[in-house]
Amino acid sequence: MEGSVVQKMGRLVSNLATHPGYLRRYIKDNTRHWFAGATPLDLEIPWFSYAATDFLDTYLKPHMTAFEYGSGGSTIYLAKRIHSVTSIEDNIAWFDIVSRRLHQQRLNNVTLTLQSFDFKHAAGFESSGYFQALGDETFDILVIDGSEEWTHVRPVCFRRAEERVKPGGIIVLDDSWRYREPQRENKARHVESFVSTGPCRPGVTSTDVFFY
Question: Is the pTM value of this prediction over 0.85?
Answer without folding.
Answer: yes
